[in-house]
Amino acid sequence: MIKPKRHRRILSILRAEGSVDLSELARMLPEVSRVTLRRDIAELAEAGALKRTHGGALLPDADLLRGDGPRLVTFEGISSELEDLDAIILPPVSGRGAAALRRQIARRGLPFLAESAEQEGGVYLGPDNRAAGRALGAEAGREARAAGETVLMICHPELANTRDRAEGFSGALRDTAPGRVEVIRVNGQGTYRQALRVALDAFKSHPDISIVFGVNDHSALAGIEAAERTGTPVRVYATGGENPSFIGRLAEDGPLRAVAAFFPDVVGALGVDLLAGALSGAPLPERATTPHAILTRETLADHYRETDGVWSLLDTRRVALMGPPPPPPGRRVRGARFGFMPHFPAHDWYRTMIQAMTARAEHYGASLKVSPPHKGIAAEISRLRAEIAAAAAGRIRPGQTVILGEGEATACLAAELRRRAAEAPDSLKGVTVITNALDVLHRLETAQPLKVILTSGEYQKADRCLVGPSLGALFERMRADIAFLSVAGVSSEFGISSLDERLALAGSRFIDAARRTVALADHTAIGADANHRIARPSDFHEVMTDDGALPADRQRLRAAGIDVTIAGDATDEVPQETGREERMARDA
Q1: What stretches of 403-500 show up as alpha helix (H) in DSSP?
Q2: Which residues pair with 20 in a beta bridge?
Q3: Cα angle at 191 between 186 and 195, to 5 degrees?
Q4: Kindly report the CA angle at 545 between 539 and 547, in degrees rounded to 5?
Q5: Which residue from 19, 62, 148, 356 could staple onto 265, CB 3.0 to 4.6 Å apart?
Q6: Is pLDDT at 495 greater than 90 in this prediction?
Q7: Total domains in the fold of the chain
Q8: How confident is the model at residue 107 (pLDDT cuts 50, 70, 90)?
Q9: Transmembrane residues, as ranges (predicted)?
Q10: What is the pLDDT of the chain when averaged over all its residues?
Q11: Are residues 353 and 400 in the same domain?
């Protein structure tokens, strides 16, 4: 695939998903090597078309929050407002950064509902996925043929809730079908395009497929399209019912036979009711299981009606599903701010939830703030890096020569030094800062009495810093006491690492020039490896991180002879020299 086409394809995937990991891109673009994908991401990031993350990419904020159609609620950046929220609903969010977000929610004591999937610290809000899958599988089993069935299951195995749906369906189908049941599983990743691709391959490889299971609406629609393209008669069953128009297809003489409907508008409204109750002093339940129903052509009219071609849930049915109306809003709820962080706010499920949540919040005199979860994650990671930087600044003594590399943590360290220079200039008397980062230079340019030296080198626009062979020329005549490096990965096996080769080479030159090297890494980087090694474990001295780092990861680093300092527990004293430092001093 030629480069322009690859770039367009990557951006198209990002516009659909919001953010994507390299492994996910590799699955979607199997004809492109990971090395090429990394290079493409770097080029697109430099052009400003996307943002690089540890192991993937995401759209710039403006693009991510831009959507078609009318806005039902203002999409605001929770990155600057997490501290102002009173309660939150968080859909499934994976990755180490998500743990940081959940820790911040717990730290603030916010009432927290985990929508659709279990999450640490949150009360589950959503249907009983396994029970719904079993009920749908039993429905399919009653219609199964005695001669046997071949079932194509379009799944999304990365998520626990969708795994439960699929396992429930297949188990109940096998229990109730009168004949043999052969199951073919494919990973549609929850998106129409990917599901269609794998479904077409499955139909071509197994022309005897007679039943299709879709783990959500898009998966089922892809299965229907693949069956039509290959001329294969099938019966289709789906869990989700995210869009009423999809449920309305049950009224047609088509392949869709039954839907396990989860009623996203009911889920959204009940979630706001629970949070409002918690703010008024009522305890949250251990688990908030929302209703589901198996809809068929015969039962469709009991739940939905069509008006001028538009399907909608009956008001009487909505009341029956939700229970009695909520009480009048209490004083503690008026003016409250509920947060909601869906990965894909334009998806049918979340769009319907947002409508219902907005209306319910208005009933209470409250407001709903919606933002993709990476906003809140980025805010928490930035807070942790600032905390680490504040602890690192306490290590700097008068008269020292200090190296600050590029990156957010070192930029925060520069900001802390500027504050310290203004409040206690004597504590930084005679301190010289050497840096290749323009952000560090900008923060320190008026910070007296600091002396700031910018290295030579080639300007790397994407990272606002200087890199290249000439960067090391300065250190032929200078020696630094300590180097602080922002790193993307730290492990006891690989050492400290960077996402960029030239940044890694710059970091290694800084290490060679300093008597002591301290890596600044939030807990999402601990135990992880980026693409390019900066230094082996034997070549640096200390890691400063936050208290989210796993004890096992911290212990492995210590066992490798690396000092580990937790920012919240950091003291003003520099750790005592280890045996490695003594050896390195002798070798210098």
Answers
A1: 408-423, 438-444
A2: 57
A3: 35
A4: 145
A5: 356
A6: yes
A7: 4
A8: confident
A9: none
A10: 87
A11: no
Q: In what order do the strands lie in the sheet with 256-261?
A: 181-187, 149-155, 211-214, 235-240, 256-261, 293-296
Of 371, 405, 434, which residue sits at a domain end? 371
Where is 174: in which H helix or E strand? helix 160-176
Amino acid identity at 337: R
Query: Nearest to residue 512, comparing CAs of 588, 573, 439?
Result: 588
Asked if residue 312 belongs to a domain, the reply is: no
With respect to residue 545, please indicate whether it lies within any of the assigned structural domains.
Answer: yes
Q: Of 33, 51, 26, 19, whose CA–CA distance to 499 is shortest? A: 51
In a shared domain, residues 510 and 429: yes
Give ∠ CA 405-43-101 in degrees, rounded to 5: 60
What's the domain range around 170?
129-261
Residue 583, pLDDT above cutoff 50: no
423 with 517, same domain: the answer is: yes
316 within some domain: no
pLDDT band at 69 (very low <50, low <70, confident <90, very high): very low
Q: What is the dihedral of CA 174, 179, 184, 190, to 10 degrees?
A: -50
389/475 same-domain check: yes
pLDDT tens digits for range 214-244: 999 999 999 999 999 999 999 999 999 999 9
Determine the Cα–Cα distance for residues 112 and 278; give it in Å rounded to an integer. 10
Q: Which two tokens stand for residue 10?
A: 């990557």
Asked whether residue 295 is assigned to any structural domain, the reply reads no
499 to each of 42, 61, 485, 502, 503, how far by Cα in Å? 9, 21, 13, 9, 8
Dist CA 284 CA 585 (whole Å)? 58
> Which SS3 state, helix, strand or coil, does residue 335 take?
coil
* Shared domain check, 141 and 112: no
Distance CA 44, CA 466 (A): 20
DSSP 528: B
Q: How many CA atoms are closer than 13 Å to the CA of 160, on its beta-carbon side?
A: 14
Cα-atom radius of gyration of the chain, to the nearest Å? 28
Report the predicted TM-score, pTM, of the whole model to 2 decimal places. 0.67
